[in-house]
# Entry
Amino acid sequence: MTTTILFTIVSLTVLGSVLALILYFVAQKFKVEEDPRIDLTEAALPGANCGGCGYAGCRAFAEACVKADELDSLFCPVGGNDVMKSVSAVLGKEVKEVAPKVAVVRCNGNCDVRQKTNHYDGYSSCAVMASLYAGDTACSFGCLGQGDCVVVCNFDAIKMDPRTGLPEVDQDKCTACGACVKACPKFIIELRNKGPKNRRIFVSCVNKDKGGVARKACAVACIGCSKCQKVCPYDAITMSNNLAYIDYNKCKLCRKCVTECPTRAIWEVNFPVRVPKKEESSVNE
Amino acid sequence: MSRTFSIGGIHPHDHKISAGAAIEDFPLMETAYISVSQHLGAPAEPVVAKGDRVKTGQLIAKANGFISANIHSSVSGVVTSIDSLPDLAGNLIPHIVIKVEGDEWIESIDRSEEIVRDIKATPKEILGKIAEAGIVGLGGAAFPTHIKLSPPPNKKADALLINGAECEPYLTSDYRIMLESPEQILIGTKIMMSALGVNRAFVGIEENKPAAIKAMKKIASKHYKDIKVVSLKKRYPQGGEKQLIDAILGRQVPSMGLPIDVGVVVQNVGTALAVYEAVQKNKPLFEGIVTVTGKCMTEQRNFKLRVGTSFDTVMFAIGGFPKDAVKLISGGPMMGKAVSRLEAASVKSTSALLLLTDEETRRGEEGNCIRCAKCVDACPMGLEPYLLNRLARAGRTEDLESNMVHDCIECGCCIYSCPSNIPLLDTIRLSKAQVLKIIRSRPKK
Amino acid sequence: MKKLVVSPAPHLHGKESTRSLMRDVIIALAPSLLVSIYFFGFSAIKLAFVGAITCVLVEYAIQKYIIKSKVSVNDYSAALTGLLLALNLPPNSPWWIVFIGSVVAIGVAKMSFGGLGQNLFNPALVGRVFLLVSFPVIMTDWTIPNSWFREGIDASTGATALSIVREGLAKGLTMDEIFAANNFSYAEMLFSKIGGSVGEVSALALLFGLAYLLIRKVIRPHIPLSIFASIVVFSGGLWLINPAHYPDPLFTLLTGGILIGAIFMATDYVTSPMSTRGMVIYGVGIGLLTVLIRNFGAYPEGISFAILIMNATVPLLNSYFKPKKFGKEVNNG
# Structure
């Protein structure tokens, strides 16, 4: 009996040692030399591996930061300015502050203002629907409501609102990684500045049809009348293909265009509610 | 002994309820909406303007580029506008709108009933006449025929195949023309053989059309001995060109290849008839046979429809949009396109207008894949649809390419056979387009 | 104006659904079920009933309350698992055995992998093997059926043909001696009267089921035929080497769970290969393993383990044995 036990112990110990030695030598021979700064940089990053920076994961971004001469073109949207400051501290390279961005859905064609003209009975994917035909309403540019943007969000920041049939962005969870922008086949979602006090103004329409056609399809469509462009004191609005566009870097949030727009296609977000002028106007705007 | 293709396929009920409907002229419409984009390739460029008077058969839009086709007016009247109007998918396409006045044809067209058997034109003249007449493939793809009949110098054809399979359920337009104009089709075939420089042709017809096989064989065996009529098993997609070549000649077109790579050119029977009319009768392509059918219709019809007839005009002619119908399909039920705008107009390649009821066409609720492999058994290209669907939903384009998603012929056999109602082809079609784009954008070695 | 329905092509669908396929399998099982009710009476009804109901309830409960997803019990797959499990059990089993087996089959082997279509191992077999390993005494307590429909009071406890053979061989008897001592006859095996589980008793009823499944195109013949062929070849080979010590192929085929295993368990869609080449290799592997386990392993019955082992190789078979592509030569991998 003892010989059996002895034999077992010896043979297993020898086997274990031999294998351990093999592992050690292989690990040494195939070791990859890496700059230790990459590990330090990666530790400063959020670790979401969302690809919002344009690189394949946080480690790839860390490598890019280490290799780059300056950090100007590198930005982690999830971590934002705070994370970039830490990266800058680790690597000793300068970094500029960037205005935080948020995803904005530029369509307000809900069921009340944009009637359905046919019934779609296929796979629930905006990409499939967009490649099949012009959509189930008379506006061939508007949101299709199948939720490709929702599926692709890594941060649970965008959800379909069942009452309107349109996606809604949670500005606190949104990291502006850009995944929903790429997923939308109609290019409706855009990354725009979050704005001071989270206030922003944008044209909530991407319809390029002539005014009459657009208006007939949707009551809140942009009809390309240019009234907003004329009233903007900061030259922030451009017209192209019957559609107005507000440059978020030039916009100073004066809201003149919002009141001027005849179809209420321009949206203001996070502003206090206006009080009608005929009341005692002691409330500030 | 009927031949058939070697891999996959399904056996849907053929529903040839309109087989007995003889071809009848559709009453002339009030307005013609003629699209400039009725073919694969660049849209044609209009050569008429608002206010111009046009005659039936007159050229109104010229081919624009190498892969393009001429378009001729299907009516006589006044051009009221050249407008962007929706096609059946709702996309805005330029249309030439003509207010119909009378039915005056251009003088060059030979309108007599007599069959012209003597082929006087040389191969080069034939190709010129086909191009001039704006003939495109009437099997559904609408590829300009004169280009298909002029293969590149390094590729030689040794056989011409005429596709009379009509494997799609419900469709009978090809059947009716084979029954009513068999000799004209054979003459058209001979014309194409001359243009291609081949000395043998085969006409493939599914065995559920015995009268058509008989009619074609009777004339071919006597006067056109180099054209062989072949009986094919009733199986979908027998009419797919790759499957047709496999069935008749036993040759398989390689991946990313064309039929000319195995020395074959395939044309639809309708195209052969159009070629006869163009070369022998100087008639350009501006009308075609359209099967208007559906279980909810009281009477099944096969109309000779002029290009540019709006779908709602057709619906009006059959007594209104049937109460039970929920879907109007341009084409067959397996590969046709569902119409989203009734005001859209017919084009050269419109072969059928099919009305389906809710019970027939509503998609069931999607369940889990039970790995039954029925889609694998059904796929005529030997692909694995369940796997391609999963890869497509995960966005794995490299794996999709190595699993040959670009070989998919979009026949629909996979969705048809899936017991869990998984919309396999919807995602596969999308990823096929993505992978093809990637493959084609690679620099050629 | 009428709202048209728009969808991508194709616009027609075949008649088959998951429900219709499962229903066809249940119909194919009906002859065996009826025969076993005839022989075992109320016990068979009890086991089948408890099995099917428990499986359905467990799947419903898990889908509704634990994972909170859509309830899909109306596709009959859970009921089918319950029936198959019941048919694999000894007729005298108490109701709680089939209850525990059903809970394991659905809860562990099916739902924990993700539900229908996601499991790696055949749920009914996992349930059966779990019971076999946990409750060996109950699971090997067989009754020899009598000819009238009654509660098993008149039936005598005994062993199955396989275990009789095993014991006999262990005692040193030859196959001929064992056969003679027990009045084995092939006719009896075909038409029943041989001890076995609820579903093993009538080979003929099972073969009717196979014919039905093939005619209705529910299964393709590759798996059952390759299993039968490989069992005949391997057990035949052993028998030719030493006929006194190894049972002949016909005996091997007709006894134990091979028929029910090859026809109903190995052909389960979810756990079997997707291409015909893969199916043949799968079948051959099952046949080989069954013969090995039966003759050289610890258990007299091998097919349940053989199928489970081959289930584990199915993903590999699916990757390496792809169907033949149009326009290309056979491409492995």
Summary: Chain B has two domains: 1-20+111-362, 374-440. Chain B has a mean pLDDT of 94. The radius of gyration of chain B is 22 Å. Residues 374-440 of chain B form one domain.
